[in-house]
Specification:
By secondary structure, this protein is an alpha+beta fold. Helices cover 42% and strands 15% of the residues. The strands form two sheets. It has a three-stranded antiparallel sheet with strand order 3-4-5. It has a two-stranded antiparallel sheet with strand order 1-2. A hairpin with a 2-residue loop joins strand 3 and strand 4.
């Protein structure tokens, strides 16, 4: 309410104690930041000294050089990225994609599953155990610049290959054959795993990738 009253020309998003405030110029951004710092101080709070930045949203139309040209909010990093318009022409736009910290956290979660050690489970069991988690990641982080999720989700296929080599004696120490086994399963049941449905095939190819 204070922002609406004092700075009706800016818009903002907030989640818990994180916020992004949109300003029309660097001068306005610094004015809002300083006024907000005073407002918070009046109620015994303060802006986080390391996380509070004035960010220049660099793109094809805003080409100046500034010290800070990216920020992270809700697990997404917003920065200049290559995009394609309706006519197929590439240009630079200021876009979100899954952040490095979010990828690191998801990778740590995948490793904690110890898929390769679960030789007592079937592929159907593994799908039931982990699909809801992976689908949640896809639903949240796959909305923008989904290709940034591809390297992470390919790791699940690598874990499944190692699972197959432990599960079946005929595939022991035969990585190529184990991967071909997963390919055969994919052909019969392409929707078995959430990341398969997203396009990450076990043969390494990505459906719909550009």
């Amino acid at each position: 309410m204070w922002l609406v009253r004092e700075f009706p020309g800016v818009t903002f998003e907030r989640y818990c104690d994180d916020a992004v405030i949109h300003c029309g110029s660097e001068e306005q951004a610094r004015q809002v930041r300083d006024a907000l710092a005073e407002r918070l101080a009046s109620v015994g709070l303060e802006l986080h000294p390391d996380k509070t930045h004035v960010v220049y949203c660099q793109d094809a139309d805003r080409r100046d050089d500034h010290e800070v040209t990216s920020f992270t909010f809700l697990g997404y990093t917003f920065r200049p990225r290559l995009a394609k318009n309706r006519w197929g022409k590439h240009f630079v736009s200021f876009l979100p994609a899954v952040s490095k910290d979010a990828v690191t956290a998801m990778g740590r979660e995948i490793r904690s599953w110890h898929i390769a050690r679960r030789s007592d489970k079937s592929l159907d069991d593994l799908a039931l155990m982990f699909n809801s988690i992976v689908q949640g990641w896809i639903n949240f982080y796959g909305r923008f610049y989904k290709s940034m999720l591809y390297p992470l989700l390919r790791r699940i296929n690598d874990h499944l290959v190692r699972w197959a080599m432990r599960k079946f004696k005929r595939l022991r120490r035969r990585e190529k054959r184990a991967r071909l086994f997963l390919v055969s399963v994919f052909r019969r049941c392409p929707g078995l795993f959430a990341h398969w449905r997203f396009g990450l095939k076990p043969d390494g190819w990505t459906m719909g990738a550009v």
